[in-house]
User: Fold this.
Amino acid sequence: MSTQGLVELTVQLEHGNVPDVVVFYDGYNETTAAYSSGRVGGPENYEGLLEYKTNSLKSIARWVARTDLGRMLNPSARAARPPIDAPAVAESVVKTYGSVYRLVLALGREYGFAVHFYWQPQLYRDPKVLTPEEEELVANHPWLPEPGKELFGETYPQARLLAQQQDGITDISHAFTGMTDRIYLGPCHITGAGNRRVAEVMLKSGLLVTVSQRSADAE
Assistant:
């Protein structure tokens, strides 16, 4: 997630590890965390993690039950999630993402590194031709029920608008358009061919120019 990435970047800078280029690749976890935890910008299963930290070991089972693995092993637990206001949550997710971008950009100016943010592809709103295996994942994957999928439908168009307004944010959620082979192994985990396409799109969108300039400056 971008917020956790910002924290890690800050820690690295505090230790004197200043990069030449910082790349953020987000989207899926930004959305699922907001749905599963009810906290925009926070980690997934926040309440379970907090309970695990503050209570006895008996809380482990309750925490596991609220994780994706726990919901996969116990399908009846999926129905317990409360409904959400998808448009409002999506707006908050994208607003928070924009805030993280601006903070990282400010750090880049201060420390002298370039910044590239990418909004990633994910299965539920991908325009690629889905294989039968990918269609099965869309229909029956246990990690995200229908309200969560609805949130993707609200979040991704708003993220696309944000990318149009911010030069350093690039929406590459359509990177697999035209590909007919199986790309998705899960809602956002992809094959080697998918990773290759993502890298190509990143490089063509400006990352290659940035890396080349930084390399030339270092010589």
